[in-house]
Amino acid sequence: MAQSMILAPSVKPQFSFEGSRQRLGCFAPKKRQCRPRLLCDLRITARAAYTADSGAVEIPRQWYNLIADLPVKPPPPLHPKTFEPVKPEDLSPLFPDELIKQEATDERFIDIPEEVIDVYRLWRPTPLIRAKRLEKLLDTPARIYYKYEGVSPAGSHKPNTAVPQVWYNSRQGVKNVVTETGAGQWGSSLAFACSLFGLNCEVWQVRASYDQKPYRKLMMQTWGAKVHPSPSSITEAGRRILEKDPLSPGSLGIAISEAVEVAATNADTKYCLGSVLNHVLLHQTVIGEECIKQMEAI
Ligand SMILES: Cc1ncc(COP(=O)(O)O)c(C=O)c1O
């Protein structure tokens, strides 16, 4: 963050986070008169201008379950061995009960636990930024906005679901969670969430990424996670790959197999997933719900 800040020469650094709405083309409530004190890059100043206002929108209190409004329900996930629709009892070695319920529920809105909202407050609401340059480039009368999720501690939207997943696990007394990571965003989000709620976190990072992105590995380790390159010799799935190809660069699929195997074979360990399932999508609706409120406030 410090890298992208430029201090105006005549201005002493004052971290009061004000910015000019008009100049930066970012969203801020209309009534506020902003004067720039600290010149930052567009994104940081845009966030500052938005979050500084005491009348800023509240973080949503509920997630929205899209399933409730789909005219045709999506097909259920299939059991990898039987190819039958998975039953809740198939999922319980991997996920805590509350997440399994969220996977299957038809309820339209689900309350966000207060403890999760408390953590969301570290970076939410995220900025809604007007893409003026894109509007100009397209020569359109439309006003285009984008929602910037990169302000989370891990740098992406992924903590939106990592935090509740870890919280529900901690409520059920789970002490260890495992996962895979490709680019490292999901692994670091889960490591961050585990550091908040005191869970042990183990991450299988795709070998190529493990070698190419040591800083992501360090981030996970800094948040207390144990990181293994995948394929690893720790799991049956990893060993089988390594036997055939000792220099395998790995893949997300292999890393998933390793993490799932560890969760499925250890009663005290659950698995966390960064996409695919409905409960993950559900948690990410905090972005859209918040965006609706911000749009209404413009
Ligand atoms: C199930 C699953 N796990 C892990 C990842 C990897 O995430 P990342 O590249 O952020 O590590 C993805 C990618 O979206 C994913 O779908």
Automatic annotation (TrEMBL):
GO MF annotation terms: L-serine hydro-lyase (adding indole, L-tryptophan-forming) activity; tryptophan synthase activity
Biochemical pathway: Amino-acid biosynthesis; L-tryptophan biosynthesis; L-tryptophan from chorismate: step 5/5
Entry annotated with the keyword Amino-acid biosynthesis: yes
Keyword terms of this UniProt record: Amino-acid biosynthesis, Aromatic amino acid biosynthesis, Lyase, Pyridoxal phosphate, Tryptophan biosynthesis
Coiled-coil ranges per UniProt: none
Tryptophan synthase beta chain-like PALP domain: residues covered: 122-240
Known catalytic reactions: (1S,2R)-1-C-(indol-3-yl)glycerol 3-phosphate + L-serine = D-glyceraldehyde 3-phosphate + L-tryptophan + H2O
A GO cellular-component term linked to this record: cytoplasm
EC supergroup of this enzyme: lyase
EC number: 4.2.1.20
Full protein name: tryptophan synthase
Origin species: Handroanthus impetiginosus
Lineage: Eukaryota, Viridiplantae, Streptophyta, Embryophyta, Tracheophyta
